[in-house]
Specification:
The structure is a single chain. Strands 1, 2, 3, 4, 5, 6, 13, 14 and 15 form a nine-stranded mixed β-sheet that branches. A four-stranded antiparallel β-sheet has the order 9-11-7-12, with helices on one face. It is globular. A hairpin with a 5-residue loop joins strand 1 and strand 2. The protein is built from eleven helices and 15 strands. It folds into two domains: about 300 residues, 3-Layer(aba) Sandwich (Aminopeptidase); about 110 residues, 2-Layer Sandwich (Alpha-Beta Plaits). It is an alpha/beta fold. Helix 7 packs antiparallel against helix 8. It binds glyoxylic acid and manganese (II) ion (2 copies).
Length: about 425
C-alpha cells in the first residue's frame, strides 16, 4: 500500500458531488442494445464487431462529456479529464472493469463497472473537483476470453504479465488477435508501451454486480469484496481418427468425443464428489467435423477450476492432467493440454475495504463483506497496485445469462459509493 492513501486524504470538506443516476441507467440501456438479442442477452465477445461498437459508444459518451478517450496498445479504453489535475501530484487511481461479454451473457457484467467509472469521472469533471490523485477510467479488453481464449487480456497487458500471454494469440477459429487488436486501436508489437510499473498506480477500484445470491438474500445494497477466487483455465485438444458411423467396428475406434465425455465427468466429480476444488466446469466443447454419422476426429474443450487456495488449485489441475492422460491412453487418442490462465486468489486491500465500507455507511447503505466467486480484472491488477471491489446485488443471483439484472436503485447506490470512495482515497 503506497503511503499516498493516508488519513490526511480523507473526504475533502465541501464535497457534495452526486452522480447522475438517470444518465447512468440510460447509458446502461443504450450499451445493452449493442450486441443485444430479443431474449435480453448481450453478445459482445472481446474484439468482435459488437465489442468494437460498444467500446466506441462509451468513448463517444466520454468525449461528448468533455473527457478524452484513448486506446492503449493492449486495446484497453482509457478515459481521462483533459485538463489533467493541477493538484494531482500522486499516482493516479484507476477505476473500471471490462466491456466485453460472454456469448449471450448479461447486460451488466463488466459494462456496469465501466459505465459507472465514466459517470464518476464525468461527475468529477463537471463539478471541477480537484483531487490529489488523478482518476482514470478504464474499459479492459477481453476479460471474458469468449472469442479469443485469453481471458484477462487487457489487465494482463496493463500489469505487465506479457510472458504469460501467447506471442501470436488466435481466436477459436484461428484468426489472429493481431488484426482484431489493430482494428480496436491496439498494437500487438507495442504491448510493452501499455504496461504500468508496480507503484505507478495508487489504487484500482472495480464496481461489479455480485453474480451470486448473497447480497440479495441478506438485503444489503453494497458488498465490500474481501477476496477474489483463484482460477485455472485449461484448453484441451483431443485427436483421434474419423470414420463412418455405420461401418467402423466398435473395437479399435479412436473416438475423441468419448474421451471428452469421460473427461467432463471426471472434472465434475473433482469438485462435486472429491472436493479437490470449490467448483469445476467444462463450458465449451467443439467437435470436428460435428456430423451426426461420422466418428469425430478432433475435439477441443475448456476446463475451468476455481478455488481460494492456490495449493488446492494446483492439485486439482494435476488431477485433471492425470485423468486426461489415462483416458486418452485407454481411448487411443492423442491429447494436448495447455493452461491458458493460472490466476492466483487475491485479497483486496484492507484500507480500501475500510474506505468502501465507510463510504457506504456515510451514504446510508446496508453493506456486507463477502468473497468473489467470479474472476475479475482486479485480481490481475493486484500485481501492480492495491485493489478494491464493490458489489451490488444480482437479482436471483444469476449472471452470464440473459436474465442478469440488478435493481436500478442498487445500480445507483454502487456508483455513489464508488464516487465517494474515489474522493476519500
Ligand atoms: C469471469 O467472468 C469469470 O469467469 O469469472
Ligand atoms: Mn463475466
Ligand atoms: Mn465481469
Amino acid at each position: 500500500m503506497p503511503d499516498s492513501l493516508t488519513v490526511a486524504d480523507k473526504v475533502r470538506p465541501g464535497t457534495s458531488l452526486r452522480i447522475d443516476g438517470a444518465r447512468l441507467l440510460d447509458r446502461l440501456d443504450r450499451l445493452a442494445e449493442i450486441g443485444g438479442s430479443e431474449d435480453g442477452g448481450v453478445t459482445r465477445m472481446g474484439f468482435s464487431d459488437a465489442d468494437q461498437e460498444g467500446r466506441a459508444y462509451v468513448a463517444r459518451q466520454a468525449v461528448e462529456a468533455g473527457l478524452t478517450a484513448t486506446v492503449d496498445a493492449g486495446g484497453n479504453l482509457l478515459l481521462r479529464r483533459p485538463e489533467g489535475h493541477r493538484r494531482s501530484t500522486r499516482p493516479p487511481i484507476l477505476v473500471g472493469s471490462h466491456l466485453d461479454t460472454v456469448a449471450n451473457g448479461g447486460r451488466l457484467d463488466g459494462a456496469y463497472g465501466v459505465v459507472a467509472a465514466l459517470e464518476v469521472l464525468q461527475t468529477l469533471h463537471e463539478g471541477g473537483a480537484e483531487t490529489d490523485h488523478e482518476t482514470i477510467a478504464v474499459g479492459f479488453a477481453n476479460e471474458e476470453g469468449a472469442l479469443f481464449p485469453q481471458p484477462f487480456w487487457g489487465s494482463m497487458v496493463l500489469a505487465g504479465r506479457l510472458d504469460a500471454l501467447p506471442g501470436e494469440p488466435e481466436d477459436y477459429a484461428g484468426r489472429p488477435l493481431r488484426d482484431a487488436l489493430a482494428r480496436a486501436g491496439g498494437d500487438l508489437s507495442l504491448l510493452k508501451t501499455a504496461t504500468w510499473a508496480p507503484g505507478s498506480l495508487a489504487a484500482y477500484l472495480e464496481l461489479h454486480v455480485e453474480q451470486g445470491p448473497v447480497l440479495e438474500r441478506l438485503g444489503r445494497s453494497i458488498g465490500v469484496v474481501e477476496s477474489i477466487t483463484g482460477r485455472t483455465h485449461m484448453s484441451v485438444q483431443l485427436h483421434g481418427k474419423a470414420g463412418h458411423a455405420g461401418t467402423t467396428p466398435m473395437e479399435g475406434r479412436q473416438d475423441p468425443l468419448v474421451v471428452a465425455a469421460n473427461l467432463i465427468q471426471a472434472v465434475q466429480r473433482l469438485a462435486a464428489e472429491e472436493k479437490l476444488c470449490r467448483v469445476a466446469t467444462v463450458g465449451r466443447v467443439e467437435v470436428h467435423p460435428n456430423s451426426p454419422n461420422t466418428i469425430p476426429d478432433a475435439v477441443r474443450l475448456d476446463v475451468d477450476l476455481r478455488d481460494s487456495d492456490p495449493a488446492r488449485l494446483d492439485a486439482a489441475e494435476h488431477t485433471v492432467r492425470g485423468a486426461l492422460a489415462a483416458l486418452a491412453r485407454s481411448g487411443n487418442v492423442r491429447a494436448v493440454i495447455e493452461s491458458t490462465v493460472r490466476s492466483a486468489p487475491v485479497h483486496t486491500d484492507p484500507r480500501i475495504r475500510d474506505t468502501i465500507a465507510a463510504s457506504a455507511t456515510e451514504l446510508g447503505y446496508a453493506q456486507e463483506t463477502l468473497p468473489s466467486g467470479a474472476g475479475h480484472d482486479a485480481q490481475v491488477v493486484a500485481d501492480l497496485a492495491p485493489v478494491g471491489m464493490i458489489f451490488v446485488p444480482s437479482i436471483d443471483g444469476v449472471s452470464h445469462v440473459p436474465s442478469e439484472r440488478t435493481a436500478p436503485e442498487d445500480l445507483i447506490a454502487g456508483a455513489e459509493v464508488l464516487l465517494r470512495t474515489v474522493l476519500k482515497l
